[in-house]
């Protein structure tokens, strides 16, 4: 099991902090850094928390890193035309020398769409858009001219140049809760399936649904990953200090947070956190995108990369 870092970019992460996080990942052996693709704070209580554009950030980090893989978790199909998205990913792939991954989903935060003027159609329509976006992105990356006459996008004999460095293309991750449509799209298009904040039982159920969809599509099961909150301390004192900072950020009580962490979170000292992660690994999870909300806490990145990751590799 790989442990990657996942940063909520809409929580006021500055460019200097992004660079520091990427450098910390490379220094401490974390193989990949993922970021959310949002333009505003999601809880509505902190409008002052700023957000740099996801693909602008990834392209810039690609230029100042050497080995770290970079990607979104996940980009909404509602934010960008798929031809533009495919070009952004290809550009980042060239800048990085082939270290980019694309997470793609249907989009969900209605207030964000309203604020920025992005249309927010019903779920059924957004899933249709996602399916066509997947076709356009993969078609843009293919070696053959691509055309699509869809309900939402129309392209005629596209031969986008250059192609991505990674062949056959950058890894494509579909995120969701493994509902029938999401699982079917993943089985048809994706290289990996990711689900967020699942309990152990939900991991088993969702992974089974994706595996069944893959079987119906005539392909091997997809690698299955999760994104969830991770709060770990080298000892009890470090854990409590870190939990106190996080509880203050979330507006909760540290004792309550430690006694009853949010569902699906990995919380504990090293051995406790490793035990939870090993159970996920044994249930078929191939990697965990560790949501790190204290984005200025670089020591936590070191603990995850140097001390926790070897216990669950």
Short description:
This protein is of the alpha/beta class. It has helices spanning 15-28, 54-63, 82-96, 110-116, 123-141, 180-189, 200-217, 236-250, 254-259, 270-282, 298-312, and strands at 2-7, 32-35, 69-72, 75-76, 100-105, 146-149, 154-158, 172-175, 192-196, 224-233, 266-269, 285-291.
Describe this structure in words.
The protein has 313 residues and is α/β, with parallel strands linked by helices. The protein has one domain (2-312): Luciferase-like domain (TIM Barrel, Alpha-Beta Barrel). Helix content is 45%, strand content 19%. It has helices spanning 15-28, 54-63, 82-96, 110-116, 123-141, 180-189, 200-217, 236-250, 254-259, 270-282, 298-312; strands at residues 2-7, 32-35, 69-72, 75-76, 100-105, 146-149, 154-158, 172-175, 192-196, 224-233, 266-269, 285-291. The strands form two sheets. It has an eight-stranded parallel beta barrel with strand order 1-2-3-5-8-9-10-12, surrounded by nine helices. Strands 6-7 form a two-stranded antiparallel ribbon. Helix 5 (123-141) runs parallel beside helix 6 (180-189) and helix 10 crosses helix 11. The chain is globular, with a radius of gyration of 19 Å. The protein starts with a strand and ends with a helix. The relative contact order is 0.14. The mean pLDDT is 97.
